[in-house]
Amino acid sequence: MKATTLLGLFLLFSKGLFAQILLTGTVTDNQGIPVGFTTITTLQPVTQYTFANENGLYTLTFPDSMLNKRIQLVFNMIGYFPDTINVELNNKKIVQNKILTEQILLESVVITSDNISGYAYGTTKIGKKGRKSKSPANGYTNTQSWSQVPITTAEEYHKSPENNFKFVNENPVTTMSIDVDNASYSNIRRYLNLGELPPTDAVRVEEMINYFSYQYPKPEEGQPYVVYTEEAPCPWNPEHRLLHVGFKGKTIEAENLPQTNFVFLIDVSGSMGDANKLQLVKSSMKLLVRNLRDEDRVAIVTYSSNVQVALQSTKCTHKDQILEVIDGLVASGSTAGAAGIQKAYDIAEKNFINSGNNRVILCTDGDFNVGVSSPEELEKLIMINRDKGIFLTCLGFGMGNLKDNKIELLADKGNGNYGYIDNIQEANKLLVETFGATMYTVAKDMKVQVEFNPAYAAAYRLIGYENRVLKNEDFEDDAVDAGELGAGQTVTTLYEIIPAGSKDTLLKNAPKLKYQKTDLTTEALNGEMATVKVRYKEPNGDTSIEAAYPVKISGVAFENTSTDYQFSAAVALYGMLLEQSQYCGKGDVSQVIKIAEQAKGEDIDGYRAEFVRLVKATPFN
User: Is residue 26 located within the same domain as residue 45?
Assistant: First the structure.
């Protein structure tokens, strides 16, 4: 199938009025339909990139010194072959080019051997031992659409049982650690872009909700965060209520960010040889390095069969040297992850910056199969360094071998976050657009405790966060580890509530107490649905600070709530459908689409529009 990418390229320059050369274009298919969110990269003689918006429009700027130079543009978009054009930045005001590209037809391409099984995509059949064959390998069929080859993978996930409803007269208080990870969403997107539903264990609803940013108000001067609450009828069960509790970390201007001491710990074992692994790691790390300041420092440790220090801690005044080392990385050998982590922490400690951002950034598919004495010892090593002020960020890459469960655990223990990078756009989002939120902590060990008012709530359920639930007594115990909130970051939690007096069938199982009575206090009748308590520590502190925030019943209809409230509800319902939750009520995919389309808001970066497209393309049975 042929598709044409039509580029209207307008070249504007003026030595007097403009200080730059402006190159703009539109990406479309052969029917004139915009191909939104295409990646456009310049390779020669300078390297930069941009993304087309949802209408296929993009802009690149160049200094006047590039006048009369030729540049090479590369266009990448899922479903299309990469395409390259050359453009001369000359005196003409308008330069037009037509790009021809083909949509990829995924035939069941399989690569098999005695020891390897995984995914491969393209148009050539590969049989056993890597031999080419004109017909499908035995047991595989041709397809004419995105499909996932139905073969065994080595990916590993862990999913805790879904949170159930709790009765307020038994358990009026619930406690959790905030979670700033969002790896589950981009990993799910990877599956959907291959035309397959993700494994239910790969679905973590809270990470899907928190993939998106929300327009909460800014914290007051001197405060590290702000709390925003909103409640209304639950869209998938209108007889219930849905409580939305949001947090936003204070924003720190780039020039005021703490000095950085980064150690890149990069898996270069043989399992990282795929293009969507080490090559994507290298592109991602280069994005990050280009956005660091001169005073920041970067070291690079690699691990495969052996551990090597590819680059000692180097100031970013020498970015060319850092980028050259990244470019030279190659994949081979087995994996010695534990020894690599030890070396990375040693370098981070040697170059420790007081009141700075000291962090190891692990890039891997998660396959730690050599040199680990035990998972407990590895966790202990990470926690010891966490207590020294060296945090751990984990970035997962690739498919077929992803150890999602292992990477998530390491990030949790290391006071860091876990992201999954499925394409260069995600790398840009995680390491450039939300750099402060990803890499700089403004509040650590942040715990949330909600007390529900029995005058208005009979039962409640925390949606997601199954592996972040804490014991109630942990709330005031400063020795108990919890999550971190990043600079400018938003974190959102949702609670589904069965109102007091409801005739919901779930309440038939509520215990009938013989020896206890619920005597309501005066405060219980003041229209408060709940009280949200928060405890956190300063990034370099050891003692928690506590605050409380009451939540009033709003009486607002769902359609009159904020777009953030509605969109988070749509994402939550979609996640529940993917994980086959028993609590979806009357909700279905059409309701997700309807709510999400109406609640996109400004959507400057197009992430919410992308969500709607993914939902529409989800192959539900």
Answer: yes
- Domain containing 37 equals 2-102
3-class secondary-structure state, position 405: helix
Nearest C-alpha neighbor of 282 from the set 310, 259, 313, 315? 310
CATH assignment of the domain containing 189: 2.60.40.1230
Beta-bridge partners for 97:
7
Band of residue 145 on the pLDDT scale cut at 50, 70, 90: very low
Mean pLDDT for 140-156 is 42
Is residue 91 in a domain? yes
Q: Are residues 294 and 341 in the same domain?
A: yes
Q: What is the mean pLDDT of residues 520-539?
A: 91
Q: State whether 453 and 592 are in the same domain.
A: yes
- Residue 387 buriedness (CB in 10 A; 0-12 / 13-18 / 19+): exposed
Nearest-Å Rg of the Cα atoms of the chain is 26
Confidence class of residue 416 from pLDDT cuts 50, 70 and 90?
confident
Q: Are 269 and 405 in a shared domain?
A: yes
Residues 6+ apart with CB under 8 A from 26: 6, 7, 8, 34, 52, 55, 56, 57, 58
Pair (180, 142) in one structural domain: no
Measure the CA dihedral 557/559/560/564, to 10°.
120
Q: Domain boundary residue among 102, 126, 143?
A: 102
Give pLDDT, residue 515.
Answer: 81
What integer pLDDT is reported at residue 28 of this predicted model?
Answer: 80
pLDDT of residue 369: 55
Q: What pLDDT was estimated at residue 79?
A: 55
Strands laid side by side in the 237-249 sheet: 166-167, 457-462, 490-499, 237-249, 225-234
| Mean confidence (pLDDT) of the chain | 82
- Whether 356 is in a domain gets the answer yes
